[in-house]
Design goal:
heterodimer, A: 398 residues, mainly beta, Immunoglobulin-like, five-stranded mixed sheet, 5 helices, B: 297 residues, 2 domains, 4 helices
């Protein structure tokens, strides 16, 4: 008996230890171009600072997209091979603790040839950013940014119990003023003794979606959306530039704005126009019931004059179809989850059955377009499943 | 007995208790008449690099201050306000969305009385020759609250010193080519913002903190919080924004918002404009719209 107990404690210890050591490690490099290598739409080459996933990978903008699952314990290891300035990683919107927030004078910066790690637990599912916060006005403009995505356990949901989708795209907008990318501005000596830095006026000439513009957005697949009719597309949008963006979606896409800055909106907004200011992120659901080809327009407006200074067009092609049944099934959503009193079914009318984890039916009924609330206040705490003729969805009763 | 237990746990009882509390609160909190005076004074703005820029402000005494005063009211209060124009040209006065425009001849005064029945932040300013006089500094904040939580106040704005000189010399400017060089909160820039107790957010873990922001400049700003998300409690631009939980808050010219922050951890975290050009002051980084929130255990 004693042996058995000791064995069980030993086994439990190993399990706890294994769980405690489960850390998702991501390596990332910070670098600077020695020569202009990033090709702009008109054939001009420009110099960048940036993040790369491997030592030998050329710098591109945006940097690598970092994807984690809600609850992941993450170690993000930054190796600074920049040859000059020190760098950091600010996990924009993740609300990490001060030490891991990436602001040099409030935590640490990583000097040339140094390696340091940022630790965090992946929070709310959503769309986030990361960028260098050393002399941030310069280093962000230089190209030191990327997207960071947190997914829920069910990767086809926007968040636990949220909207489901069939496919997703991530667009990061930015601009470049090539004056800031000249050797004398971008390649300044490593100096941690002063925070002050004189920088030029900002008058960008190039306007990007995922680091590309004009014909590059048509010639490459960096942003173009392809989908079937009735397919639900999740579009993740982030603005790391210093201009405002105005997105105009074709009416056929039935754009539905569902969340911002990693949190669901209290009320979904149905609109074909969305403005995103510097540092903001939004998530938008798109679904067309017909086949068509068009473009999503992205305008870049000056925040001082509010004048639109550029517009980019990203192709959208909807062809073929998935069945309405399939799309309907994937669209069923419930909220709130976990639930205290009333559970709401979104976009569903008809009969339902709620059963517990043993399969025992506990509530049966129907919901209509005028009454979509189900009273679950009498249920005991625990995990339940709500079943319709389309799908089965898990929820938690508090 | 079973009935009583059910009753005790029911939402009805919770609502009843809440109702009694609200009834008590309503009838024990008395609305006051708040007497204030504002003096229009022409002087200058001292920028972060010690440049003196011609400037105008409302002041709560005949002594010049480059920051417009914040008028704090509780819900239901009546504001009795005298505005004295000490300038040698005429001005006007309005509380945006609340009062009618009143003209104030040079070296004259006007009286205004308003009852505030909606919580929020309001802009008072000189709307004459708009946006000229508002741009030159004549714009401040009135806050109407229904709580006594710690509150902080940002009147955010930008400045182009050449334009101020041009406008004070009677010249015109092309407002479509606005290119500001200085970015301020309550008329000062980083690192001086943290020295302003009205602007620098401080508190403890679990506190409920309120930040009232007005944008009395001409640019759109996009204020980003490190460390915490905040909830929009009031937006003059759109009531549909109320309840949104975000880390980055666009604020358009002449817009006001009220944010609620409930810090879940200790630390010192930046809050800054994410138009990173606005983090500079006359092209020097980081002498712009940058401050920190300080939360203790």
């Amino acid at each position: 008996m004693i042996k058995k107990t000791l064995f069980m404690f030993g086994f439990l210890g190993i399990v706890i230890s294994a769980v405690a050591q489960q850390v998702t490690l991501t390596n990332i490099f910070s670098k600077m171009d020695m020569n202009p290598q990033h090709v702009l739409w008109d054939g001009t080459n420009t110099m960048l600072m940036g993040f790369t996933p491997l030592m030998m990978t050329p710098i591109d903008i945006p940097g690598p997209t970092l994807v984690y699952t809600e609850g992941d314990s993450v170690e993000l290891k930054l190796r600074n091979m920049s040859q000059s300035a020190s760098h950091s990683i600010h996990l924009h919107g993740l609300d990490v603790d001060q030490w891991n927030d990436g602001v040099p004078h409030l935590s640490f910066e990583v000097g040339h040839n140094e390696t340091e790690s940022y630790f965090f637990k992946a929070p709310h599912p959503g769309t986030y950013l990361y960028h260098c916060h050393v002399t941030s006005s310069l280093h962000v403009q230089a190209g030191m940014y990327g997207m960071l995505i947190i997914k829920p356990q069910n990767a086809n949901e926007t968040w636990d119990g949220g909207f489901t989708f069939n496919k997703e795209y991530a667009w990061m907008t930015s601009e470049i003023d090539t004056v800031w990318h000249t050797d004398s501005i971008i390649n300044y000596p490593h100096d941690t003794t002063t925070n002050l830095r004189e920088l030029p006026d900002y008058n960008p000439q190039y306007f990007f979606v995922n680091g590309r513009s004009e014909h590059q957005l048509i010639d490459t697949n960096v942003a173009a959306i392809t989908a079937k009719s009735n397919e639900i597309v999740l579009l993740r949008l982030a603005n790391i530039g210093y201009f405002g963006n105005r997105f105009v979606f074709p009416a056929y896409l039935n754009a539905k704005i569902i969340s911002s800055d990693g949190r669901p909106l209290p009320n979904v907004v149905i609109s074909d126009t969305l403005e995103i200011l510097p540092g903001e992120r939004y998530q938008v659901l798109l679904k067309s019931t017909i086949e068509f080809s068009d473009s999503i327009l992205v305008s870049y407006f000056n925040l001082n004059t509010q004048n639109t200074e550029n517009t980019q067009m990203i192709p959208v092609n909807v062809s073929g179809s998935v069945s309405v049944f399939e799309a309907f099934t994937s669209e069923l959503s419930i909220y709130p989850n976990p639930v205290n009193d009333k559970l709401f079914l979104s976009k569903f009318t008809g009969e339902f059955l709620i059963h517990n984890v043993t399969g025992k039916s506990v509530i049966q009924g129907s919901v209509s377009s005028t009454n979509s609330a189900i009273d679950v206040s009498e249920l005991s705490k625990g995990v339940y499943f709500i079943k319709t003729n389309k799908t089965t969805t898990k929820f938690i009763k508090n | 007995m079973e009935f009583l237990l059910k009753l005790r746990n029911s939402q009805l009882v919770n609502k009843l208790v809440l109702g009694i509390f609200l009834f008590y609160f309503t009838f024990t909190t008395t609305a006051n008449t708040v007497n204030k005076s504002l003096y229009i004074i022409s002087d200058s703005l001292l920028t972060v690099d010690n440049t003196k820029v011609p400037y105008l402000t409302f002041n709560d005494s005949p002594t010049y201050n480059q920051s417009n005063p914040i008028i704090n009211l509780m819900l239901g209060d009546t504001l009795d306000l005298w505005i004295y124009n000490t300038d040698n040209i005429s001005h006007s006065f309005v509380i945006k969305g609340v009062s009618a425009v009143q003209s104030i001849p040079a070296n004259d005064s006007v009286f205004l009385q308003e009852i505030f029945t909606t919580i929020g932040s309001y802009i008072y300013h000189d709307p004459s020759d708009f946006p000229k006089n508002t741009y030159l500094g004549l714009a401040g904040m009135i806050v109407v609250k229904n709580h006594n939580h710690a509150s902080f106040y940002w009147n955010i704005k930008e400045h182009n010193s050449d334009w101020n000189n041009q406008l004070f010399n009677g010249n015109t400017v092309n407002w479509n080519q606005y290119d500001p060089k200085y970015f301020t909160i309550n008329s000062v820039s980083n690192p001086n913002i943290n020295a302003d107790p009205l602007a620098r957010i401080t508190g403890q873990v679990g506190d409920t903190l309120y930040l009232h922001i007005t944008n009395t400049g001409l640019s759109i700003h996009s204020m980003h919080f490190h460390g915490y998300h905040a909830t929009i409690k009031y937006s003059s631009k759109s009531s549909a924004h109320v309840g949104r939980e975000k880390d980055t808050f666009p604020i358009y010219p002449m817009e006001t918002i009220v944010l609620q922050i409930v810090p879940d951890k200790e630390g010192e975290f930046p809050i800054h404009d994410h138009n990173l050009v606005a983090v500079m002051g006359n092209n020097i980084y980081p002498n712009g719209m940058f401050t920190t929130i300080l939360i203790t255990p």
